[in-house]
Structures are given as structure tokens and as C-alpha cells.
Specification:
This protein has 146 residues and is an alpha/beta fold. It contains five helices and five strands; from the N terminus they run βααβαβαββα.
Length: 146
């Protein structure tokens, strides 16, 4: 099983951002945790992080055809990234949306997600552990899909 883990703008700055929302772990810590978790489950993960919507779209277009699913933290693109949403639709693969903070308890503009309508689920507010929950959710969905 192969899962894409897609990260949008500013996630490369984890560990330097507001700890009350994003915790103290760095982006490298996120990747290490996901790689260990995925390896233990026998799942291959392929990562992308970009501050550019176009780069994320290109990654999804290139990698989705050989992947079983996508875990995405679109960052701020969550709220307005319609081109990114279109690339997720075109990927024709199950998607789980993840947010480190609970976007539903934050500013009003953060509560709207253009990604959620194309995702099988959303994990929000569990810190970087949310990535692991999202991978587990995606695997469960893929293994039990009829």
C-alpha cells in the first residue's frame, strides 16, 4: 500500500509557529513519526510539502496514479485552494484531510474547508498524532472498501 502525505504552506515551519496551535514538534519530527508508524504497518509513504499550490498540484498529478490514497494537510489552502481541490478530485483516490489544530475552534475563516467535501474524513485538533490517525483511517477504509 502506498499513501501520499501532502502538506501545504507554512507547514515546513512547524516548531517555529505558535505552539498553542501547532505544538513544538518540527516538520522533520512529523516526517519521522509518519515514516516509523507507516513502516510498522507495512505502508509506503511519499511526502510533499510546498508553499506553492501549483507544486502541490503537480505532485498529486504525478504521484496519485500509483498511490492508494492521500493524507493532506493543505494549510491555508484548505480555505481557498480550489485548484488544489480539483487535483484531489481528479486523483480518484480516497483522501483524508488533517489539521494539527482544531480548525473548528479557531477564527471563522479557518472553519471552512474546500477539501472536506472530497475527503472520506477529517482529523483535526490532535497535534501531529492526527497524521497517524489519518493514515490509520485511510488504511482501514482501503482494506474494508467494498
Amino acid at each position: 500500500m502506498r499513501i501520499l502525505v501532502v502538506n501545504g504552506p507554512n507547514l515546513n515551519n512547524l516548531g517555529k509557529r505558535d505552539e498553542s496551535h501547532y505544538g513544538s514538534e518540527s516538520f522533520s519530527d512529523v516526517i519521522i513519526a509518519i515514516e516509523k508508524f507507516s513502516k510498522d504497518l507495512g505502508v509506503e509513504t511519499n511526502f510533499s510539502q510546498s508553499n506553492s499550490e501549483g507544486e502541490l498540484i503537480s505532485f498529486i498529478q504525478k504521484e496519485a496514479p500509483t498511490s492508494d490514497g492521500i493524507v493532506i494537510n493543505a494549510g491555508a489552502l484548505t480555505h481557498y485552494g480550489l485548484a488544489l481541490k480539483d487535483s484531489l478530485i481528479d486523483a480518484k483516490t480516497p483522501i483524508v484531510e488533517i489539521h494539527i489544530s482544531n480548525i473548528h475552534q479557531r477564527e471563522k475563516y479557518r472553519r471552512t474547508s474546500v477539501v472536506e467535501s472530497v475527503a472520506i474524513g477529517q482529523v483535526a485538533g490532535f497535534g501531529i498524532s492526527g497524521y497517524l490517525y489519518a493514515i490509520e483511517l485511510l488504511i482501514n477504509h482501503l482494506e474494508n472498501a467494498i
